[in-house]
Structures are given as C-alpha cells and as structure tokens.
Amino acid sequence: MIISIQEVSYKGDYKINFQFSDGVERTVDFEEFLRKSKNPMTNKYLNKELFKAFTLDYGDIVWNNYELCFPVWDLHKGEI
C-alpha cells in the first residue's frame, strides 16, 4: 500500500498535523530535528516564518521546492 499525505495543518511552534491516505492522523514535532541540525540549509527553518511556508506537493510535505522534505513513511510513523 502506498501512503500519501492528504492534508497538513500548522499547529504552532514546530508542530504539523498530518492526515494520511490510510486514515491515520498524526502530529509531528520538528523542533528537535531542526535544533540538532548542523546544516545551515536545514536549521534556517528554525525561523518560524520559513517553517510555516510548507506546501503539500504530490502527497508529500515540502519546503522551498524540495529544499527540505521527509520520507512520508517516517512522518506516518512519527519519526524524523
């Protein structure tokens, strides 16, 4: 079964709620991942305005034309 993201919504701070094609709904907190990142292309998303500027593209959440994205299955499991 191929899982895709159907809907996303910003929940505050670095939390995003996901609704997946199999009916699972999960909120993922990206803060720890972003704070631990040493890559300036990633940790720049600690700027909340940049973080909130995600889009849903072909069933995946992306930032800045795929500059930052995550495997859908990892998000589905709540692990990033």
Q: Label the structural class.
A: alpha+beta
- Please identify, by name, the CATH architecture: 2-Layer Sandwich
**What name does the CATH topology carry?**
NE0471 N-terminal domain-like
CATH class: Alpha Beta
Rg result? 12 Å
- Mean pLDDT over all positions: 97
Would you kindly provide a written description of the structure presented here, covering whatever features stand out?
By secondary structure, the protein is of the alpha+beta class. The protein has a single domain (about 5-75), classed as NE0471 N-terminal domain-like, CATH 3.30.2020.10. The protein has helices spanning about 30-35, 40-45, 50, 70-75; strands at about 5-10, 15-20, 25-30, 55, 60-65, 70. The strands form 2 sheets. It has a 3-stranded antiparallel beta sheet with strand order 1-2-3. A 3-stranded antiparallel beta sheet has the order 4-5-6, with no helix packed on it. The longest helix is centred in the middle third of the chain and has 6 residues, at about 30-35. The mean pLDDT is about 95.
Summarize the structure.
The chain has helices spanning 31-36, 40-43, 48-51, 72-77, and strands spanning 5-12, 15-20, 25-29, 54-57, 60-63, 68-69.
How are the SSEs ordered, and which strands pair?
Blueprint: E1 5-12, E2 15-20, E3 25-29, H1 31-36, H2 40-43, H3 48-51, E4 54-57, E5 60-63, E6 68-69, H4 72-77
